Amino acid sequence: MCPQTNKPAAYDPQPPRPEWGIRPPTRKTGSLKLPILEASPPRWVVIPIEQCLGVSARAIVTPGQHVLTGEPIAQADSVTGTDPGPKLHASISGEVIGIENNMVPGTSAHREPCIVIRSDGKDETYSEYKNLGDPLQMDAGKICTLIAEAGIVGLGGALFSTAAKLQNSSGIRMLILNGAECEPYITCDEMLLRERARKVARGAQIMMRALGAPDTVIAIESDMPEARVAIYDAIEELGDDRIHESVVTAKYPAGGERQIIQLVMGEEVPEGALQNDIGYVCHNVATAAAIAEFFDEGRPLISRIVTVTGGGIETARNVDVRIGTIMADLFELIGGYYDVSSHLIMGGPMMGVCLPNDELPVTKATNCLIIMKSRELSPPRQEMPCIRCGECNQVCPAQLLPQELLTASKQHDMEALDTLGLNACIECGCCDYVCPSYIPLTAQFTSTKLEFRAHESGMQRAAHARERYEARASRLQQEQAERDKQLQEQVDAVSGTDSIDAVMKRVASRDKKP
Amino acid sequence: MIFASGIAPHWRTQHTVPVMMRQVIYSLLPGITAYIWFFGIGVAVNCLIAAVVAALTEASALLIRGRPVKLFLSDYSAIVTAILLALCLPVVTPWWVTASGSFFAIAVAKHLYGGLGFNVFNPAMAGYVAIMVSFPEYMTHWTAPNIGDIDYQPLSALATLQYIFTGVLPDSLTIDAISRATPLDTVKTELGMMLTMGEIRANPLFGDLGGRGWEWINSAYALGGFWLLFRGIIRWHVPVALLGSLLVMAGAGYIIDPATHPGAGFHVFSGGTLLCAFFIATDPVTCTTTNTGRLIYGAGIGILIFMIRTWGSYADGVAFAILLMNMTVPLIDRYTRPKVYGRPPTGKEQRSHG
Asked: What is the ipTM score, two decimals?
């Protein structure tokens, strides 16, 4: 049943049409023409060791060691302290050549330790993960431990440890699987749903067991009719009526976590709270599919679907590529470059990161690679002053006023930023997209958030210090009051006008003693 | 292959500031054409004078302030201000009056406040009010439209040019001979003389809705306004609120006392109402930013236009209405903020802590 309208899953309700958001050209048809290509294992892979958000990791193999496909090669630390840290696995079988610092894709092309493996051509699978048992009979803790063992992290791009997210599971009312791919060009989740919807549904079942959630909603956009049919068929095949699908309007950024909860369930995540606090857990559909693959086939997270597209690539398509494949090898595999291109963007055109060259490895966070020719990008222009047109206010999905935030951020007015709700900004880029003055609003807010958070933590420390000072002052005062009271009691015990004389006599008699 | 870098987002709108301003100029062209048809080329000459003076003033101000001249000159905002100012002036305004107004608008009302994006008051209206108050007699020399059946000889193009630049009229004419009151002027003075609306409207100066000629010009402005709405350069809130509140007030006045109130159609189609509704009140810099704020702002202007026309001493209240509402914009903005995602709807914005 669709939770929005209480009608069966295949019914197509009118998705709520939000006022916020933009409708840029989607540019998705090119990469949707061909089916997912299962990339053959490359000759060598460069796997960054740290592929889990917020925690560091250590290699557990040594150079020269032979590893099998799917064998654990690194262990990350626990995120919350109680969850098992996710592992990292070899995506091909072969010899570990070394653990070296390599450039990895990210916002700054920095160097990180990576495990380099050279293929032995055999692609032998590590068989310890087969026959784990029926996950729907296991208890929640065991499922989470195994998910961490499988190295499964959020495949929507955040790389947050899935086991940690599933552990915090009291009072979860609904599991939401986010298949709403709102950014232009990206089609990896849509292709996954078209071809492997059964795995997604199966993953939903396992996650519901781990969370104790009664229902799941798979959210997709209204421009994915084939995916919708595939999901419906998969749900029918599994025969599980706890899984539903929900269609949301195809606007950017409908696929943001907070926005999808607002669109599908009609509730907003309160400021400063997590989605768990209102009973929802949101995961990417690819994460669900990876969980199903691990429990049913014994395959840990060693590959992911990447959309390779753009005007500069010969053939645009989705590729199921091994983690650690060098991007240049990946492009060769699907036909090579079409033409000299100016930009390589990891992600989409709205929030994606520009990469400096194509010698970087594919990581668990790489959902899309766009080889863009300069005509596909907006030409850069000089920034002009804000003309207060208010278009940014119209499109902000967090219902903020970017125009006033800009003024407050340029003036470093922390109070105003707090009142205006800077922390609710999801850095989606909608305000930049519509700004006629070409003001770099998102970049401004990203940098202001750092300042704002430093200021907030400073305020918290100051508040804490004030509490401690006041506690100390009152404690000292109390002690002083007690001492005064004791003194007064002693004074009162010796009563009468000759009390001083009595004291003097006692002192004199004491002095006389030898 | 090596690639270039950039920061997200990598896609941006094509509606840049120069594009928006040029679209505004294009959508004024139907109105200007109708104006020339009915009143002669004087309006085009005024536009030219105002535009040239505005551009020179803007360039000088930018040089003095050390700002990039080419960038700001090529955004056409000074030209838009100049044209809007020129469209509010009588056709035979002397060149130096137009030039003063244009200079004041750009130098004082725009650059003294900080330039594009920082001015509080609408520069075109500020310039208009400055010359209205400084040179009031020249601002009353309105001519009559060329509608053929009035006992009136319109000035030829050459004579218009001669008067604008040298102040000399052809031998047989005086300024009083060629100037006539506008429909709004006529209504105001004749109501003051205790004539009823029926008698006033019998004057051949009045057409079906507003003044003859003027209703065509205003309709052409409205056409341009709909084009801007269609292109998304302006949003519907300010024009609808302005015209709505004016219609309500004028309609109420007409219902209560049709003899002394000209009615909604007249108010909307005469004077500068439609020019104001679509072009002047929607100036993004001096307008409020949120949709609720825009409804309040537009309604306030409409109410003030009606009040000034009916009970004030000026025939057309558009300029003053705009300037008065410009003053209230920061206040309206402060109290019409939408609810931020994740905050409870308490009716006013809340701090997240503290």
From this structure: 0.88
